[in-house]
Amino acid sequence: MIPLQQVWPDELARLYRERGYWRGETFPGFLRERAAEHPDRVAVTGGDGTSWTYGELFSKAETNAAGFLALGLQPGDRVVVQLGNIPEFLSVVCGLFVAGLIPVYALPAHRLTEIVHFAQKSEAAAYVIAERYDNFDYRTLAREVVAAVPAIKNVIVVGEAEEFVALSSFKANAALLPADPSPSSVAFLQISGGSTGLSKLIPRTHDDYIYSFRASAEICGLDADSVYMSALPVAHNFPMSSPGVFGALYAGSRVVMCPSPSPETAFALIEREKVTITGLVPPLALLWMQAAPKTSYDLSSLQILQVGGAKFMPEAARRVKGSLGCTLQQVFGMAEGLVNYTRLDDPYEIIVETQGRPISADDEVLIVDDQGNPVPEGEPGNLLTRGPYTIRGYHNDPGANSRSFTEDGFYRTGDVVKRTPEGYLVVQGRATDHINRAGEKISAEEIEDHLLAHPSVFDAAVVSLPDPFLGEKSCAFVIPQGEQPKASELKAFMRTRKVADFKVPDQIVFVSEFQTTAVGKISRKELRAKLRADFLEKKA
Ligand code: OOB
């Protein structure tokens, strides 16, 4: 098994400890502490009203930890977790942490192709699902996963397990529980948005991740009276840690798991649970702002609406206060690390016009041209970063690591930003070829590969097009061979590829050739840029 690690150079690790960012905390350690400090305070509430106190959450985590180990899993083993916004998400992943097992976070939208990739890449030994979520039976998916990945020895199901193992069958057994993991060890694997090909795996340590959500909770002013609602899929880094469910648990706040971000479901929960803070991607923020004036639900408890994952346009940002009556916080982050926030007491213009500034004084931010030279202050350039919670490399991916990191360990974010005189970042665009579809990052290359598998596709180039609602939508330019297939046929074909539904191209445009320059071969990147520009120009 390829060892999991995330290593910073000694002098930086020393600095991060000296400055108090890395305090030697671990997930099991802080959860146990909170359970001891306020065992009877409610930690998490589900959409159906199920509530567990901090004491109950930790005791369920210990029971689940023993259950996983009793199945024969060994500390250090990887476990793919595909659960939606239900309280069991927390009892399962906290159980894995207590057992020293490593969650690999999949989204509910992922299907066979993605799950097999995560399982193989992480060398996973088990897979946790819910019986159903969002009208999909995950047991049918699990059967295909097990057939494709024999190393998955156990499937654990929240709900009716059929031939698999029911989470509810797990029994407490303190004798099985190991000592807490080392704070510098990898706690879990997060999934990258991925601009080239398949998603990469992001190893995050206890020390670095806990710092990021502890500091985030402080920036957002979370305390015992706060109620954080996860409206986005909780496996995303944003609702998980910015400050997310873990920042909320760290601060002793209450977490609400919202099963759908639709205004109907979310507004009802805001009223019922007196939610004080939640986070959305821009398209959902627009939807909420549209629905709020007409709703009969009482949204007055909501103090902070965070918006991030994709660019929130200033015009929309200016409407938040008027329509939802709360403070806007812009969040510009990435699963690889760096997270920027506008601060709650920032001047209004900074809140609506910028994507915030880094969490840490020791987040190093460089803005450089394509040759790697710093651009003049205030000019747009490529954002590079390193710091106390930004990874130094992906798991087992030398190719991606040489592309995505500089020799001195800066992560190339792929984002084009400029910096204001006050040190706030404004996202201008992106240098890499992915589509940011309502906050879900889609790799153009990955979709092209699927389309090329269709017998009537000679070549395909996938690009992003502006969309008033989604921010960006995906468009596939396809050169057919033989008889031209219908667009609907290609979309149906994409579904047979067993990928997340958000990866099916929104639009398909058939072309007879890709105009390449006289010089001959142009890069895929240039080709995509040209197709996109020509198409938008024709439409204008
Ligand atoms: C968050 O994380 P990821 O890993 O899904 O995506 C990261 C990328 C960034 O590199 C950037 O391209 C884009 O998403 N992005 C934004 C943005 N926030 C993220 N682009 C413009 N404006 C923003 N506010 O998306 C994520 C992780 C933690 C917190 C928030 C978002």
Report on this model:
Pathway: Siderophore biosynthesis. This is (2,3-dihydroxybenzoyl)adenylate synthase. This protein is an alpha/beta fold. Among the domains are: 27-181, 3-Layer(aba) Sandwich (Rossmann fold); 434-513 and 521-539, GMP Synthetase, Chain A, domain 3 (2-Layer Sandwich). It is 33% helix and 25% strand. It contains 18 helices and 27 strands. The strands form seven sheets. A nine-stranded mixed beta sheet has the order 2-1-13-12-14-15-16-17-18, with helices on both faces. Strands 4-3-5-8-9 form a five-stranded parallel beta sheet, with helices on both faces. It has a four-stranded antiparallel beta sheet with strand order 19-20-21-22, with no helix packed on it. The chain is globular, with a radius of gyration of 23 Å. 52% of the residues are buried. The mean pLDDT is 97. The protein binds 5'-O-[(R)-(benzoyloxy)(hydroxy)phosphoryl]adenosine (OOB). 5'-O-[(R)-(benzoyloxy)(hydroxy)phosphoryl]adenosine (OOB) binds next to helix 8, strand 16, strand 21 and strand 22.
Task: Summarize the topology.
Blueprint: H1 10-18, H2 27-37, E1 42-45, E2 51-53, H3 54-70, E3 78-82, H4 87-99, E4 102-105, H5 112-122, E5 126-130, E6 132-133, E7 136-137, H6 138-148, E8 154-158, E9 165-166, E10 186-191, E11 201-205, H7 206-219, E12 227-230, H8 237-241, H9 244-250, E13 254-257, H10 263-273, E14 277-280, H11 282-291, E15 304-308, H12 314-317, H13 320-324, E16 327-334, E17 337-341, H14 348-353, E18 357-358, E19 364-368, E20 381-386, H15 398-404, E21 411-419, E22 425-430, E23 434-437, E24 440-443, H16 444-452, E25 457-467, E26 471-480, H17 487-496, E27 507-510, H18 524-539
Parallel strand pairs: 1-13, 3-4, 3-5, 5-8, 8-9, 12-13, 12-14, 14-15, 15-16, 26-27
Antiparallel strand pairs: 1-2, 6-7, 10-11, 16-17, 17-18, 19-20, 20-21, 21-22, 23-24, 25-26
Bound molecules: 5'-O-[(R)-(benzoyloxy)(hydroxy)phosphoryl]adenosine.
